[in-house]
Amino acid sequence: MQLTNKIKSITIGSFDGIHLGHQVLINQVEAVVVIERNGGYLTSGYRRSNYLDKPCFFYHFEKIYQLSAKEFVEKLCIDFPQLETIVVGYDFEFGHKKEGNTTLLKQLFQGEIVVVDEVKVDDISVHSRTIKHYLKDENLRLVNRLLGRPLSIEGEVVLGQGLGKKELVPTINLNIYDYQLPKNGVYVTRTKIGDEWLESVSFVGIRQTTDEAFAVETYVLDRELGEVKGRVTLEFLEFIRENRKFNGLKALKTQINLDITYTKNYFKENR
User: Which of 236, 238, 242, 269 is deepest in the core (most CB within 10 A)?
Assistant: First the structure.
């Protein structure tokens, strides 16, 4: 028997970020149905399942957007034949041109519909769009509070300039896609290599002092790593400073050392 044949309760949404508001919905059901779009995510694609302890099923938006509200509900009932309960947020919309809302969902679905009220933190509505707004505003601490966890991105290790190891500090350069990145600058981070989380300081932005290329790179504190390959995850813990151009590599290295000192003090104070 397929897993979907056993599931009696689901929640539906984009679940971008799996933030505190999403978690209220998810905690009430057996499985999660994700409406997947392309790019610009806080947490993209299958990576949502990293923050879930329940089955996660994906409906790609491009394949369902022409379904009417009625057809969408019919699809849910076919895909989940034992479905009894659907949990959604108060602002849930569905069907072609968003013709459906929670009122129509109650009319179309024969089982129970649970509508979850707006979730707030310090009177701030918890929405992915709100989190993205504060992310651009460098308010990382608030972003992480609304997420209920540190902002996280994942990327493939790529070759950098080669300057770090020779002239500055050795960094791991990452190719990042499908993510809404934080504001350009330097951050206290943790870097996951394999199964190990390591204390680090990371840079996001245009390398203004050197090749003027966009980069996401991380320096792991006090660790000789050798060659790193594959996928690496970054967790952003605190914003240190904005990106800027320095008068040569010597001045840049001086600032990097200050960033490293700041990061070491952060971890010392937050252990």
Answer: 236
Residues 23 and 92 in one domain: yes
State the helix-helix crossing angle for 128-136 and 140-147, rounded to 10 degrees: 160
The whole-angstrom separation of Cα 180 and Cα 43 is: 8
Q: What does each of the 271 residues of the chain score in pLDDT, given as a tens digit?
A: 477 899 999 999 999 999 999 999 999 999 999 998 876 688 878 888 889 999 999 999 999 999 999 999 999 999 999 999 999 999 999 999 999 999 999 999 999 999 999 999 999 999 999 999 999 887 899 999 999 999 999 999 998 766 656 667 889 999 998 888 999 999 999 999 999 999 999 999 999 988 889 999 999 998 888 889 999 999 999 999 999 999 999 999 999 999 999 999 999 999 8
Do residues 96 and 200 share a domain? Answer: no
Report residue 103 as tokens: 């009122």
CATH number at residue 47: 3.40.50.620
Let me know: does 68 contact 99? Beta carbons within 8 Å.
yes
Residue 268 CA to residue 199 CA, distance in Å, equals: 11
Total number of domains in the chain: 2
Strand stretches in the chain, DSSP E:
9-13, 31-36, 56-60, 85-89, 112-116, 120-121, 124-125, 151-158, 172-175, 185-193, 196-206, 214-220, 231-242
Asked if residue 129 is part of any domain, the answer here is no
Can you give the pTM of this predicted structure? 0.90
CATH code for the domain in which residue 205 is found: 2.40.30.30
Same domain, 178 and 261: yes
